[in-house]
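Quick entry between incubations.
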Amino acid sequence: MSAVLPEHPEFLWRNPDPRRSYEVVIVGGGGHGLATAYYLARNHGITNVAVLERGWLAGGNMARNTTIIRSNYLWDESAAIYEHALKQWEALPEELDYDFLFSQRGVLNLAHTPQDVREGVRRVNANQLNGVDAEWLNPDQVKEFCPIVDISPGVRYPVLGATLQPRAGIAKHDHVAWAFARTADEHGIDLIQDCEVTGFLRDGDKILGVQTTRGPIMADRIGLAAAGHTSVLAGLAGLRLPLQSHPLQALVSELLEPVHPCVVMSNHVHVYVSQAHKGELVMGAGVDPYNSYAQRGSVHVIERQMAAALELFPIFARAHVIRTWGGIVDVTPDASPIIGATPLANLFVNCGWGTGGFKATPASGWVYAHTLATGRAHPLNEPFALERFTTGALIDEHGAAAVAH
Amino acid sequence: MTVEPRRSPLDGLDVHREGVRLRELPFPSQVDLRLDPVGTAANRVAQSLGTPLPVVPNTVVVSGDRHTLWLGPDEWLVVGPDGDAPVVVRALREALGTEPGSVVDVSANRVVLELSGARARDVLEQGCSIDLHPRAFGPERCAQTLLARANVLLYQVNEMPTYWVMVRPSFAEYLVSWLLDAARCPRVGADRSGRGTDPSS
Amino acid sequence: MTAHRLPNGGRVDRAAPVRFTYDGKRYTGLRGDTLASALIANGVLEVAPSSYRGRPRGIVTAGVDEPNALVLVDGSLLPATTLELHDGLSATGRSGVGRLTDSTDSVRHDKRYVHCDVLVVGGGPAGLAAAQAAGRTGARTILADERTELGGTLLATKGFDLSWPGLAEFPETRVLSRTTAVGYYDQNYVVLAQRNTLWHVRAKRVVLATGAHERPLVFADNDRPGVMLASAVREYVNRYAVAPGQNVVLATTNDSAYQVALDLIAAGITVSAIVDSRPEPPAALVNQVGVEVITGSAVTGTEGRHRVSAVHIGPDRSIPCDLLAVSGGWNPAVHMFSQAQGRVRYEERIAAFVPDTCPQDLEVVGAANATYELAACLAEGAAAGARAAHLAGFGGGTAPELPPVPAESDSAHRPVWMVEGDETLQFIDLQRDSTVADIRRATGAGLRSVEHVKRYTTVGTGLDQGRTGGVPAIGVIAELLGASSPGEVGTTTYRPPYTPVSFALLAGRDRGELHDPIRRTAMHSWHVAHGAVFEDVGQWKRPHHYPRAGEDAQAAVLRECTAARTGLAMMDASTLGKIEVQGPDAGEFLNRMYTNAFAKLAIGSCRYGMLCRADGMVFDDGVVLRLAEDRYLTTTTTGNAAAVLDWFEEWQQTEWPELRVRFTSVTEQWATIAVVGPGSRAALTPLLPDLDLSAAAFGFMTFRDTVLCNGVPARVARVSFSGELAFEINVATWHGLSTWELVANTGATPYGTETMHVLRAEKGFVIVGQDTDGTVTPQDLGMDWIVSKRKDFVGRRSFSRPDTARPDRRQLVGLLPVDPDDLLPEGAQLVAGGVPLTPPVPMLGHVTSSYRSAALGRTFALALVAGGRDLIGRELLAPLGNRVITATVTEPIFYDPEGTRRDG
Amino acid sequence: MLLIPCPWCGDRDETEFHYGGQAHVAYPQSPDALSDAQWAEYLFVRDNPKGEFAERWCHNAGCRRWFNLVRDTATHQIVVQR
Ligand SMILES: Cc1cc2nc3c(=O)[nH]c(=O)nc-3n(C[C@H](O)[C@H](O)[C@H](O)COP(=O)(O)OP(=O)(O)OC[C@H]3O[C@@H](n4cnc5c(N)ncnc54)[C@H](O)[C@@H]3O)c2cc1C
Ligand SMILES: NC(=O)c1ccc[n+]([C@@H]2O[C@H](COP(=O)([O-])OP(=O)(O)OC[C@H]3O[C@@H](n4cnc5c(N)ncnc54)[C@H](O)[C@@H]3O)[C@@H](O)[C@H]2O)c1
Ligand SMILES: Cc1cc2nc3c(=O)[nH]c(=O)nc-3n(C[C@H](O)[C@H](O)[C@H](O)COP(=O)(O)O)c2cc1C
Ligand SMILES: [Zn+2]
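Done. Structure below.
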């Protein structure tokens, strides 16, 4: 018999109609929007809040990601915020009273070339000094940690080692979103679905509210949390942001008896894979190069992905792909997010998480709630301001996150 | 002084498989030409080559034993017999005169494979996404494209069909392994009856 | 013959018995059977119990929509209902969960890329008619059908001649059986899975004739073995000549079950009753079947342990039977259509989602288009096929004559989404074991969207992707939410693949040796023969070092380094990118690209150059040779060869089309051998008879075109990446190996990339990508001298941005570990002395390169350190977990700072 | 797998092309004259519309020509060639 997942709560959320005005309106009911709502209530006592979602709650990238959680980022600024998130993850199942299957099974990032090794070692050292758990494994240790990886030297790109973050792992994506949503709802926050923001109500450079498919809604502060659609929303306010939206695909296999004990990622061979609790292999593919809002990508990306997967995991040959899908990720020039104020008063953005924002969900909510509550950045998101593109103080995570998940 | 013999990574490969033959054409001369197709140099070049440059994309003009392949709107590859390159380079540079453009001897820059036989198209079809059906491609057509995971310059020489598959030498061994592997596969999809073959076969 | 195999009929070959095992037991079936039909022929209907609740389950369908009868064959999880029987087949029943085993797969997979005018998906009557109409025009036509034989539902219909389309007569028509269209992508790109071949079809027009899937009915204990789709029962009886039961009750919401009843009766099977949800089913049908029709009713439950023994109709009535055939209506198979971005709408009359509009060049015909009468299917298919061919440029667009067929009836359906009973036993998705109760719980939790309900209950997420249970689930949600119709709820998203596709099939031939091209230089075989250990640089294999017997890597590298510094050594540098840049504006172009100037470089000279991206960060570097007034040869790093050529083309074509300059890649025209060391001049003198190699005659950073002693033309450059006297010999690739051998015969020690790295690091030369990481400017590298102040070039403006102009940026410095034996790991982080090592520890930078140096007799390193140049002379710490290495910051040059050695 | 019309070679599979993002973004005439903000705009900010988008492609594996076209980023339909 298959692994039985924990039962969901009897009740998740009300389905209220929007009120005329709120203290804070969050646009986008993905993980980040919902977490922000929760932390507005929890940390700042602000509950006069609406989350406006154009479709169904957490139906964007939150419904589509490969659920990898880790904090082993290279630069101090990134390590700080992702590690904050990881510490939150460790407490959240209890805090939110929701078993969302957070599993700290460890994440391996494989190295296949001397260059990969240098980068991996660099990251391990930086992580350790930043207080992020990290280890360097040699190929035999890789094999021990994940017995199905082919470490034989004869393969096209042999495994030369790996970084391991033992505290990293996965969680069940939509359960996470629902956990935040339920608690936000309990605090009286309105989660409003089928409510698309179609424009902004403004007085000069001051934003007063939003126009929606369910009528105008006024707010003291408005926070965008629309991931792949942020450019479209910003465009409604006349803002241009350094974002490009790309398709990112993922796929699952049929349910399989447990074969894969951890999470494995390889930038070089382009694979990342874990086995979810139900038993399906969950795999991500590369970003399609072109801009798109179509939530689907090209099949050759999947084919490459499978070829790469079989190089590392010959045992997967007879597994089947049963479903492929795509999300729309908002990519910044330095592969780091943008969190903070905009040139328009009362309008804030939290975007640019690209291919890797699921893991940041709690911290993103934490700092964004702070920003929306106080009008100022939290120390953790200060470096992630929009200005960095003007000054040049980028936080370039490309190296450490070529396929960042 | 005798010049050291040249060596190719394929070492004069010549193999037959069911319905196809794959062999290396050793050391044809190849000259890359870039110039403005409407400038006066184009006329001079045509004169010195003895034929006009092909201006229809992805076509070839053959004149004697020289084949001029269209590579781009201002780029051609002149393929000729071994030893022809210095002659062609000199002639083309002269024809180019002071007009902008470039002439480069690239004879060693690509290995030329010849794939021929009844199943040649079938073999290419396994890794090349352009339409090679006779209605879409044929003799004196060429294309720069991808074959498996290698960039190739593909040129159909005759109806048989015979193709030249021109590839960078560093990819040659890979591509040959790939082609031979593809040539090994029995023809599929010829099942017209609608009643399939035995699954165990 | 067993009792379950009917005495005659069917499309199985009674003369061809096939032996197989199922769950370890031996059985015999017939050629033409599926595993499922063969099991039924042997009286086996029950399969593995359900995944989560362990309930007994039976075969439900006869096709791809099977939720229960899954089996493991050779490590692959497959539906028994589509698995063709073959001798020696050995299958184990599984309940939706596969098991991967480590047996290596020997099956070969490959791919095909084909183009056509008309692709017809589905070979039922509609598809056959379409293929015939298109094929006869001469249009390149492909007909793909997932089944073993063409005919679709006609295979389950008695007495229909399937040969009429005569497709074999059209030379440009290709019939692909056992071929499933699994994915429909942009611009009519359709991927077909045919056993071990994956077809990629680019079609001008597509006709989708994918038929319809029958829906089950939802009632208590509807998962009991012996509850089967009516169409499946018909297919088992007519196509396979097996009887899944002897005493059948039919439950239906539409006309189609009546034909099933007639066929069963004709086969000698008892039909006890038909339970029809409609108060007034067509009288003609009722009269024709001649069995009891219980109208306006629905089945509410079943009895039996491992097999249905009776069905309940409401609280009062129970009818004994051993098989319950159900038809809850039909779902047009809109999967392909939806994947093609087609929109569906809900059609009340047949209670189903049907194709509406689609942006791609396709048409949907037959049952897939909710046309359920055979004659209409044929006509629709033929018209669409002719139209498609016409639009692709073939034929006049008129459809051919069609075979006459008997009239059928298709009156309105009356769906039954929910009935009385224990909702925890009313199964919606058999594979996921989810029930009406689960859906009620989901809607009770506040969920309104079908997508939420799917994720809350996992309905439709199994191998069959809700092909049977999907729409009933929507019906139940609609009722629970009080929606006006299932149309208001809508469907979940249809996604590829339509049916599961193995990883191996998607990977195709790109495995093992063919996974990714291995690029080899002309000298590769020599390197192999001389024991080189290789490293992967991009797709290239480059010798990393050449260990001799008994040597480890470190010893080999020290030896190679010593040879280069004190004697004679050689390296294969062929992988460096090379681009000929020609035209009157070549110099101006290079001036705009490189940070330093090239327009005035003398002919016959070389100059090192650096490229930045527009953001001012170092992108690539290399030596540029001026061949003639209007010709340069630029070299690039191995990894960036293609990127630099693309970069040049992009700027020239899109920004400066007025510049008269053109580029030609000559990377592989040339093989390159670096001959290095104080002994190089003497060693090369006999090899280069036409050249005066003296420093005076052949100055540093110049080159000569010459002929080697063996008659091979060569270009020799005096460039040095090691600081030693060095010559770089370039010959045509086909002379690479022999020239290498020629040099090797002088006694030169071959060295690999690691030695090259050590030698250049001793001189403080950077490696782009190792000492830089996309965040480093030339100034950060201490290379202000290479940044022209007099001209603009790509990236220049970025140097004056506030952050790029900061004095405390990370700068390249040298490091000497205090203990000369300590080797700093590359990637070690550096911190100031005296800071407590409790996280978070402020970091100043990291070690980019680190080696043991034979020349220095000690270790040394290069590092990027914040404000590093101001720290020269100070000590920094590299904390490495359990130990700390202390190192002194130095200038990033360790060997021969005056550059006295390069002239020999 | 998009089918991209190369103005020279005709329709080819997406895999033969390199994507170049938004079209018609010219390199500034005199970068020195720009403020840091304007330079940042040139470096990093590109349109990202949902709908028709004029974009650049290069037929990398073919004729190596750069060209522009208009594609709908919501439907992937290639609307006109420009
Ligand atoms: C295939 C894939 C794999 C991934 N894998 C990982 C991984 O392994 N690990 C990881 O950390 N990250 C991963 N990510 C990234 C991660 O999913 C995202 O960074 C993250 O989910 C983005 O934040 P979000 O949840 O708020 O976004 P979303 O869930 O996309 O939320 C944005 C919401 O805004 C709504 N919206 C948009 N416009 C409007 C409007 N006008 N009005 C109202 N609402 C609007 C959308 O409908 C949507 O629900 C992956 C992403 C994808 C696509
Ligand atoms: N009376 C009714 O209510 C009713 C309902 C449905 C169908 N029908 C009957 O069914 C027939 C419908 O004919 P038709 O031609 O439209 O459909 P069909 O079901 O006869 O044929 C469809 C064919 O397409 C194949 N197929 C489906 N998806 C595929 C894919 N992705 N790739 C490859 N093959 C695929 C199927 O296996 C099948 O062989 C008619 O005879 C009609 O009378 C009747
Ligand atoms: C971690 C993870 C696991 C998933 N597991 C399954 C699965 O077992 N079966 C399935 O059909 N889909 C699975 N999905 C995919 C969803 O069904 C769905 O495709 C995805 O949420 C995107 O939504 P869409 O396809 O409706 O656009 C999974 C998705 C994720 C992110
Ligand atoms: Zn082209």
